[in-house]
Amino acid sequence: MNDSTITLPWLVVRQDDNGNRYRVGRYATRAEAQKIADSLDSRGHKQLYWVERIDRNGDSGDH
Fold this sequence. Notes:
flat, 63 residues
């Protein structure tokens, strides 16, 4: 576990139309991450954006 996992536990993840997933950024609060995801999602592209929390081991909640 490192300090950035504790202080920036929220991820914004993007999935493109081919199913590839990418971490867009890490944020301190869920609200901040959701605001970014909503902003990116509103652009109308085929990509999907969502928010995930990183656990204390550094893993995201997509397992």
